[in-house]
Amino acid sequence: MSEGYNFGQLNALVVDDYFPMHEIMRGILKEFGVARVAEATSGKAAITELEFFHADIIFTDYMMDDMNGLELIQEIRAGNTPANRFVPIVVVSAYTEVREILAARDIGATEFLAKPISGKLVYYRLRSIVEHPRVFVEAETFFGPDRRRRELELIEENRRLEEYEYKKAEREKIRPT
Amino acid sequence: MSDENVGKLIQPPNKLSNKVTVGGPGAVDEAALERAEQVIGDLSESYIDWAREDLTKIQTVFEELKSSGGDSEPLDGVFQISHDIKGQGGSFDYELMTIIGDMLCRYIEGLEGAAPKQAIEVIELHINALQAVISQQLKGNGGAVGDQLLSGLELVVQKRTKPS
Fold it and tell me: Complex ipTM above 0.85?
């Protein structure tokens, strides 16, 4: 492994209404040396948290009561919260259908991370965000990272999807028909 | 024309890269990656407790669904809990929880808002299968028992969704 990144000055906010995810993400991010990890259980609670917590990156669940992940992203990108409008936001969700990934992208998410997660997958997303900062687009109906991703990123995205589909097919293959 | 074509392109201040450095004490190395994986391994015992809590919750909401005759509100409750179950299992080597949770979510999505009597029975079978995975601690693909659970569920879903 080439020299790794040092996240010692980073503040991360984890937004999820499922308490075990807080424990998992907190544990993983602490192992990566992230300075501070704050947690919130809904989009609304996250906005309150952001009043005094300067998040450098936000990991948010998709489906939550009291403001879901997409509504939270919309509020942040619209500048209706104390957060930096450009803050990288990773949607972490078990909603892994293409339509949901596209919905997250179209509302201004930076990255998508499918549950179930692993430490390595979280690191790869962090690395991707650091290495490929995205230009933002400000238009009448959209404010967020440029959705026209570089070819290489698309290839990588496809590779991940293929890997997922392959694993799924492998699982199905071992079952009797 | 897309927003990207008509909108203004902005190079955002890269606050992240200002804060993230390469190397030095505390930088992520192979050992840190392994420890991060181990975080999940260390939470395995907690996972069983969380899964049991989820199963208790889903059973309670399922009873509401049954007594309501298949109302959309408890149906949505069952969906949300099975969605959480789907999102966790695989992290802790309980792949079957993720697969069955996903099957249940997809089945409920296909119901369009309410559950007729037959659908309630199918949902119950999924919940029973989830209970079996945890009570028998069926890790990974669950071997022969896992195969039986999945193929049995698939068969039932196929039968119940076939046009009569």
Answer: no
